[in-house]
């Protein structure tokens, strides 16, 4: 990172962010909680991973989280966004990631969860998100990440899954949600992440994609998700993780991006927003802190750019049987 000192650019108010996350969980009647009710599993993953990155996972009751999480599992093996809702591959990955944070994956019936995910693969190698069939490279990443954590990648046709992802590659080096769809930083993370996990990064034109990704940095230091769009803290994750996986992260101005993220903090009440002076939320709080982790900000644990989990958690999974 270039030498801009933290005194020139403000500090991460980590304790306030921890308090913001713990309070958000308690405010069940708030507008934010009500509109997020159906995707509470994602919210829990964002909040708990942020706490772990700040070394404060111990502030939550593991038993409470895990027993609620298990009420979200469906007969099929998949997880829903909350108790009583329908299962979806999106929430299934979040549930597995949360259990990984707590080192509790072994409470799962791994065969059942992995079968749920594997059955969502289609003939052309793509993945549907649930029984209703929507196809998106987000679901390819989720399936591959989830099955890799569960050590069950052999349950799917990896060759076909990779071929489908490669068919979503565009002339600009980026990837879209389906073949021919516009390149978008979020989808690029998914495709590059899936290719990294399956050892298939040779399909990426690293210089071409690196160029497209580093052009996402705007004058103010923040990143956008595609040309002509506004910067947003969440792209600190989608763009930066992709740049790291293809070994081109030195092509952006890291110090300017750190400053942009720190400027999006609510210094009084904690939380991080999409852009300076906007309202904070748990999604941007997570991606801001995760972005700072990728930028090697002091005091934040190192996150794995492909699995979106702290590196110590990923190592624990990979080095245990
Ligand atoms: C484990 C980190 C992790 C992810 C799981 C769900 C998922 C896999 C990936 C989502 C990737 C994605 C598509 C991210 C983009 C999210 C986003 C901010 C979309 C907004 O799109 P637009 O078009 O915004 O509204 P822009 O910024 O283009 O104007």
Automatic annotation (TrEMBL):
Top-level EC class as recorded in UniProt: transferase
The superkingdom of the source organism is Eukaryota
Pfam families cross-referenced by the UniProt entry = Prenyltrans
Report whether Zinc shows up as a keyword of the record.
yes
Q: Name one GO biological process term.
A: root development
Prenyltransferase alpha-alpha toroid domain ranges (all copies):
13-308
Q: Which GO terms describe its cellular component?
A: Rab-protein geranylgeranyltransferase complex
Catalytic activity from the UniProt record: geranylgeranyl diphosphate + L-cysteinyl-[protein] = S-geranylgeranyl-L-cysteinyl-[protein] + diphosphate
What keywords does the record list, in alphabetical order? Metal-binding, Prenyltransferase, Repeat, Transferase, Zinc
State its cofactor: Zn(2+)
Keyword Transferase attached: yes
Per UniProt, the cofactor note for this protein states: Binds 1 zinc ion per subunit.
Q: How does it assemble?
A: Heterotrimer composed of the alpha subunit RGTA, the beta subunit RGTB and REP; within this trimer, RGTA and RGTB form the catalytic component, while REP mediates peptide substrate binding.
Record's function text: Catalyzes the transfer of a geranylgeranyl moiety from geranylgeranyl diphosphate to both cysteines of proteins with the C-terminal sequence -XXCC, -XCXC and -CCXX. Required for male fertility and root tip growth.
Q: What is this protein called?
A: Geranylgeranyl transferase type-2 subunit beta
* Species whose genome carries this gene: Arabidopsis thaliana x Arabidopsis arenosa
Taxonomic lineage: Eukaryota, Viridiplantae, Streptophyta, Embryophyta, Tracheophyta
